[in-house]
Amino acid sequence: VQNRLQQTFAKQLRPGQSVWEWSYETDEEDRSWPARCRATVTIPVVGRSFTGAWVRGQRDAQIEACGLVAQFLSEGGELPTTLSKGELPRTLSEGSSTGFHDDLSDSAL
Predict the structure, then answer these.
(1) Is the CB of residue 89 less than 8 Å from the CB of residue 64?
(2) What is the rounded CA–CA span in Å between residue 16 and residue 98?
(3) Cβ neighbours of residue 99 under 8 Å, at least 6 residues apart?
(4) Strands 36-43 vs 48-51: parallel, antiparallel or unpaired
(5) CA-closest candidate to residue 42, choices 95, 105, 89, 99
(6) Cα–Cα distance between 83 and 70 in angstroms, integer?
(7) Which of 49, 58, 77, 88 is least enclosed by beta carbons within 10 angstroms?
């Protein structure tokens, strides 16, 4: 998936720029091992984030999020069109009815 991203967006990436950024959440209430985890991967060049399902362990969480990125690429994932002033990119999140939702936070409102 990383190679596909690099090939797809090679012209938009600056030298040394990472094609993606990862973050992880763990279920603080879960006492099993490995703990339940979900990964979010952000693709800066397209302004999108993808959050996978809750699974056991960080590796499986990363695989879940990679599946969402692969789906995005298979569906013709492209750079966003020019955004209107104040408009934020959309993110793909597991469980969303449309697949995409606005990436809004309290600070953006």
Answers:
(1) no
(2) 34
(3) 92
(4) antiparallel
(5) 89
(6) 24
(7) 88
Show the tokens assigned to 108: 């953006």
What tokens does 39 get? Answer: 């990964």
Note the helical H segments in 1-109.
2-8, 58-74
Tokens encoding 95: 């469980």
Tokens of 104: 């809004």
pLDDT of residue 80: 52
Pairing of strands 36-43, 21-26: antiparallel
pLDDT along the chain (109 residues), means of 10: 91 90 93 93 93 96 96 78 39 38 31
pLDDT the model gives residue 76:
82
Query: Tokens representing 10?
Result: 């090679």
